[in-house]
Design brief:
A 16-stranded antiparallel β-barrel has the order 14-15-16-17-18-21-22-23-24-25-26-29-30-32-33-34. Strands 1, 4, 5, 6 and 7 form a five-stranded mixed sheet that branches. The two termini are 56 Å apart. It is α+β, with helices and mostly antiparallel strands and 728 residues long. 20% of the residues lie in helices and 43% in strands. It has 14 helices and 34 strands.
Length: 728
């Protein structure tokens, strides 16, 4: 953005700017100037949050739809591929950063000037040229006409960072691969009296062996010395002393503008030796105002895509024009990001064209779909016995609806599961997802020892849950969803009624065959599934259970007869979390849970506790059986202090208070009863040092449980451990 500072100095000094040309970032700045943007408006564009999203490949939070987020899993790596002619053909991505927000941003800022120019860059506020690299034909591409947005987008498409585009069927990349200093183009096309060139790149820098982008830069970008041949044309090269920045490190805009401004002002006396003409600032402002007044207001009445299937085209058109025959840019943007958030769509490249017979615009969307097949790998690695690996196979396709079929599995000593699911998603004013799934999961709650801690009373409990489910879900605004599900559940628990058992003893077996009807509402703006640093979450879940319990006692039980009973009960659970951004390195998260259930006494203490509402506020608490923190009804409150030490490195210190007001207590060896006593309160203390990577957190965790054996738990882990769909 040092270019902006140079332009600012030139305008303030009255130096006429009759032509502009640029490559890469120079093409963006030059294109904005040629589109009639004032220097203040350009500074505002480069300083806004949207620009940060452009160059970091992220999407603004206001256009992220929670309903369309995939269910979290333990994957580290995802590979998309085609199966063509019975061959496995995986493909590596061609870009590190998503260009979705940038592509739409270019539509917003360049379309109106494009409509005035009508494909002729000489008809802009000032004539303009930019340079791209045509890798299809291995040659330089000089853009003097066509779509202004496309030309600038091509010129700044750094290889492997941003997704390339095609112009006239030819694939385009950054013009710096051939010509990063287009003085020759300026001289040939415009023959100016004097050229003021800006060189912000350092010539012939050696690549760093630990910096991928610097290596790519040295391999692909042309070596240039940024000089003007004084025998051909008069001019000066302005060399702002900008710091070493990466290809995407443009968030220091104000600093760079000041550097460019000062450098230009320091050289102004040299320019004035050759340029005697002056143009008052008010004259430039008036010309700019006149040009901007010609720019039409954008209203869109038609959408076309590259999809050949007419029915699919109609689905897209219906999405954009559900209620109105004409939409403005704000609504078009909302619909664009709604469509691109579909997991079946890889990318959408938008362009607006002004209709020839009226003042309205037509939208063209070039839609690229994800490969239909996918494999995901991952897991959770820990210093304790809960290490678990994960794999998922998926197939996505689009007929009248978006559909996906998935098979995912976890396997380890603690947790094993397989789940098959089929999902149907519909677009429209009120999108909807229907999911059919069937699966089985097994948890082995064998409590022996953790690092530095050991249980005095080892226990044994396995829980196996089979599930057949139908779920329907729809969004409630951008950040919430609600829905319901019908579940057929088989819950089987095997355990000993005492911790004093041997291998020759037989375990109790308690089974529940249930119909579960559930409704839920969830609002979520948190940035991470675990260790969030900002945002809020609120969950309401209502359940009804009806079915049959059968209990077969083992030889450690005080019971001797097999029992079978019809059971039914209701359950309500509320969870709320909110993170307060106190200051840059520190945030405070307040959390609370409320649970109520009228679950009946089952045939044993352990069987009842296992099916009660559970309080599991930490990652580790979800991985072992803590009967004291499972009750029909309770309320909790938690406080987490989050210290952001460095980028994604955080220290979290948390405390949780647990208060049951309707608890399950043991009676005798294995029977249970209800207690309304409020003296059974407890607390949990938790500390974590975590670094969150793109594939999961690396963390060291220590917990203290007021009522648990052992009290202190410590582990070091990598990744997330999620569970397939479960009820208990």
């Amino acid at each position: 953005m040092a270019h902006v500072g140079v332009l600012k100095a030139l305008e303030e000094s009255g130096i006429p700017i009759n032509y502009v040309a640029g490559t890469s970032m120079g093409a963006i700045v030059g294109g904005l100037y040629a589109s009639g943007y004032s220097l203040e408006e350009m500074d505002s564009i480069f300083s806004c949050k949207d620009f940060t999203h452009w160059i970091k490949g992220t999407i603004s939070d206001e256009y992220i739809y929670y309903f369309k987020k995939e269910e979290p899993n333990s994957a580290w790596l995802r590979l998309d591929f085609n199966i063509e002619s019975a061959k496995f053909t995986p493909r590596l991505p061609v870009n590190l950063l998503s260009p979705s927000q940038m592509d739409f941003g270019f539509v917003e800022i360049f379309t109106r000037a494009d409509a005035i120019a009508q494909g002729n860059f000489d008809s802009l506020f000032v004539p303009f040229r930019c340079i791209g690299t045509d890798i299809t034909n291995s040659k330089e591409a000089i853009f003097s006409d066509g779509c202004l947005k496309d030309a600038i987008r091509a010129s700044m498409t750094f290889p492997f960072v941003f997704r390339p585009i095609k112009i006239n069927g030819n694939m385009m990349y950054d013009g710096g691969m051939i010509n990063n200093f287009p003085v020759d183009v300026m001289e040939k096309d415009f023959a100016p009296d004097y050229i003021i060139a800006v060189a912000v790149s350092k010539p012939n820098e050696d690549p760093s062996d630990d910096d991928f982008l610097s290596i790519i830069n040295s391999m692909l970008m042309a070596k240039q010395f940024y000089n003007i041949d004084s025998t051909k044309i008069k001019g000066i090269v302005i060399r702002p002393n900008v710091p070493n920045l990466s290809v995407t490190d443009f968030d220091r805009g104000r600093e760079l503008v000041e550097v460019g401004y000062k450098t230009m002002m320091d050289s102004m006396h040299i320019v004035r030796e050759f340029v005697k003409d002056s143009i008052p600032a008010e004259v430039i402002a008036n010309r700019r105002t006149e040009f901007q007044a010609k720019c039409p207001t954008i209203s869109i009445n038609n959408v076309e895509t590259n999809i050949k299937d007419k029915s699919r085209n109609q689905i897209v058109e219906n999405l954009f024009f559900e209620t109105d025959s004409v939409i403005d840019m704000k609504m078009f943007k909302k619909k664009y990001f709604s469509l691109i958030s579909e997991k079946y769509i890889n990318h959408i490249y938008p362009t607006l064209y002004k209709n020839a017979d009226d003042s309205l615009f037509k939208a063209n969307l070039f839609i690229t779909f994800n490969k239909p097949f996918q494999i995901q790998f991952g897991g959770y690695i820990t210093t304790n016995t809960q290490t678990t690996f994960y794999v998922k196979f998926g197939y996505n396709f689009w007929r009248r609806y978006f559909m996906s079929a998935n098979l995912e599995a976890y396997f380890g000593q603690f947790y094993n599961s397989a789940l098959a699911s089929f999902k149907i998603s519909s677009l429209g004013k009120q999108p909807m997802e229907q999911t059919f799934s069937i699966g089985i999961g097994r948890w082995n709650y064998l409590k022996t020892s953790w690092i530095f801690t050991e249980s005095d009373n080892p226990s044994f409990l396995t829980h196996t849950e089979g599930l057949a489910s139908y779920q329907i879900c729809t969004p409630a605004g951008r950040k919430a969803k609600f829905g319901g599900q019908f579940n057929f559940v088989s819950s089987k628990a095997k355990f000993f009624s005492t911790n004093d058992y041997s291998h020759s003893d037989t375990s109790d077996i308690n089974k529940l065959m249930l119909l579960n009807i559930q409704s839920f509402f969830e609002y979520n703006t948190q940035d991470f599934n675990f260790f969030p640093t900002k945002g809020s979450r609120f969950l309401v879940k209502l359940d009804y259970f009806f079915g049959v319990e059968s209990n077969n006692p083992g030889n450690t039980s005080s019971q001797t007869n097999t029992e079978s009973h019809i059971r039914d009960w209701f359950s309500i659970k509320l969870e709320a979390d909110h993170t307060f951004d106190i200051c840059k390195p520190y945030s405070l998260t307040l959390s609370s849970q409320f649970a109520w259930s009228n679950i009946p006494r089952l045939e044993s203490f352990t069987a009842t506790k296992l099916r009660c509402n559970a309080f599991t506020p930490t990652h580790e608490s979800q991985m072992f059986y803590t009967p004291f923190y499972r009750d029909p009804s309770f309320i909790t409150i938690g406080l987490s202090n989050v210290f952001n030490l460095y980028k994604n490195l955080q220290l979290r210190i948390s405390g949780y208070y647990y208060q049951p007001f309707f608890a399950i207590v043991r009676v005798g060896t294995d029977r249970c009863d209800f207690s309304k006593c409020c003296e059974l309160r407890s607390y949990i203390l938790y500390g974590s040092l975590a670094y969150t990577t793109k594939i999961g957190p690396i963390s060291a965790n220590i917990s203290y449980y007021g009522n648990n054996d052992p009290h202190i738990l410590f582990n070091i882990s990598f990744g997330y451990l999620f569970f397939n769909k479960r009820i208990f």
